[in-house]
Automatic annotation (TrEMBL):
Keyword annotations from UniProtKB, A to Z: Acyltransferase, Repeat, Transferase
UniProt entry tagged with the keyword Ribosomal protein: no
Protein name according to UniProt: Sugar O-acetyltransferase
UniProt cross-references to SUPFAM superfamilies, sorted A to Z: Trimeric LpxA-like enzymes (SSF51161)
Domain Maltose/galactoside acetyltransferase: residue ranges: 4-58
InterPro entries assigned to the protein according to its UniProt record, in alphabetical order: Hexapep, Hexapep_transf_CS, LacA-like, Mac_dom, Trimer_LpxA-like_sf
């Protein structure tokens, strides 16, 4: 296996492999161009993101600055929004569903390092994939750790550190992040009422 194949499969790999260096340089170039755009260049921003990522939906909007390791391991669904200072370390696959919104300074980190110092000092790393479902709101300053799956219709509270999977249809928060309560029919009814009031005014 190549170092890249080992990396994507979640095996130990050597990060300073020449192929991986070239892939990172590509991502650095595209993110540098993206982060240097102005507010008048929205179409160009989208073009750069579609080149950077493995795949995207039709609507994708990320506020600069944005950083990632490779970009080519990130798949994003339709109607995605990320606020300022988003970082995605995609040494393994990152899969993000439709209608997902990130607050500022969200970090999605597939990268991990061995606990043993001797192996870690040999510059060996590994990663675990991250999956985020549909209709998810991730609050400001949230960290999503390697190997986590966040379900559909989930709200993650600001400042949370997500270390374990989060099921569908819940509000979760904390460090470590834990489920606070389910999202209920009463929640839906309340917010639908608020929406109708908005539309009537």
């Amino acid at each position: 296996m190549t170092e890249k194949e080992r990396m994507v499969c979640g095996e130990l790999y050597f990060a300073y492999d020449e192929e991986l260096k070239r892939d990172r340089q590509r991502a650095r170039r595209l993110t540098r161009l993206f982060n240097g755009t102005t507010e008048e260049e929205l179409a160009y921003r989208t073009e750069l993101l579609k080149e950077l990522f493995q795949s995207t939906g039709e609507q994708i909007f990320i506020e600069p600055p944005f950083r990632c390791d490779y970009g080519s391991h990130i798949r994003i669904g339709d109607n995605f929004y990320a606020n300022y200072d988003c970082i995605i370390l995609d040494v393994c696959d990152v899969t993000i569903g439709d209608h997902v919104f990130f607050g500022p300074r969200v970090g999605v980190y597939t990268a991990a390092h061995p606990i043993d110092a001797g192996v870690r000092n040999a510059i060996l790393e590994y990663g675990r994939p991250i999956t985020i479902g549909n209709s998810v709101w991730v609050g400001a300053d949230v960290v999503i750790n390697p190997g986590v799956t966040v379900g559909n219709n989930v709200v993650i509270g600001s400042g949370s550190v997500v270390t374990k999977d989060i099921p569908d249809n819940v509000i979760a928060a904390g460090n470590p992040c834990r489920v606070l309560r389910p999202i209920t029919v009463e929640d839906r009814d309340y917010w639908e009422k608020r929406r109708r009031e908005y539309m009537e005014n």
